[in-house]
Design brief:
Blueprint lengths: L1 E3 L2 E7 L1 H19 L5 E6 L3 H10 L5 E11 L2 E10 L9 E9 L3 H11 L5 E9 L12 E5 L5 E2 L15 E4 L1
Helix pairs in contact: 1-2
The structure holds inosinic acid (IMP) and magnesium ion.
The site of magnesium ion (MG) has 5 residues, from strand 6.
Main location: cytoplasm
EC number: 2.4.2.8
GO cellular component, one term: cytosol
């Protein structure tokens, strides 16, 4: 068990399971995009580790970019999604894969979709390492999800509780 600030967390998904799932996701994306050179657009801060490992497993040519959004306060999603770093306009005409650490209510994914309406991309796909189906309130299709998990707060592998826990190589669940 570990403690971050005032809360305790127990081990949930180990590093080897995460790596296998990400390798599998990279292979699926490669098979789908065929000869396109995709741009992986990571959603900071949480997705930095997923993007890094996903790209290492993606053996064909690809590019990377980032946006920065924030909606979480403590262990709760707020309905307001703040845009802290916006989109790169050079994404026009490209195959874009949005890379999220986790999709919870879907507010962030909805905001991302809106941001991309202003850019004429060739195709847009959404990849998320974790998905909480019980918390999801949108009709937006998620193209790649590695783990569907219960509606419980998790940390590690990029995900934080008030700033802490992002450096953990495995996933912990709120006790
Ligand atoms: P959504 O907008 O409610 O779908 O939340 C998406 C964002 O909230 C994610 O990209 C994460 O940054 C954060 N988030 C959602 N669930 C968790 C969690 O269980 N632990 C840590 N961060 C989370
Ligand atoms: Mg995130």
């Amino acid at each position: 068990m570990i403690q971050l600030h005032d809360k305790h967390f127990v081990p949930f998904i180990n590093a080897a399971e995460i790596d296998t799932a990400i390798a599998d996701m990279a292979a699926k994306i490669a098979a789908d995009v065929e000869d396109e050179v995709p741009v992986f657009v990571g959603v900071l801060n949480g997705a930095f580790m997923v993007v890094s490992d996903l790209m290492k497993h993606y053996t064909r040519p690809c590019e990377v970019s980032f946006v920065k959004l924030a909606s979480y306060e403590g262990t709760q999603s707020t309905n307001e999604v703040k845009q802290l770093i916006g989109l790169d306009k050079k994404l026009e005409g490209r195959t874009v894969i949005i890379v999220e650490d986790i999709v919870d209510t879907g507010n962030t994914v909805e905001e991302l979709k809106k941001m991309f309406e202003a850019v004429n991309v060739k195709q847009l796909k959404i990849a998320a390492l974790f998905f909480k189906p019980e918390a999801y309130t949108k009709n937006i299709k998620l193209d790649y999800t590695a783990f569907s998990i219960p509606n419980k707060f998790i940390v590690g592998y990029g995900l934080d509780y008030d700033g802490l826990g992002r450096n953990l190589p495995e996933i912990y669940q709120l006790k």
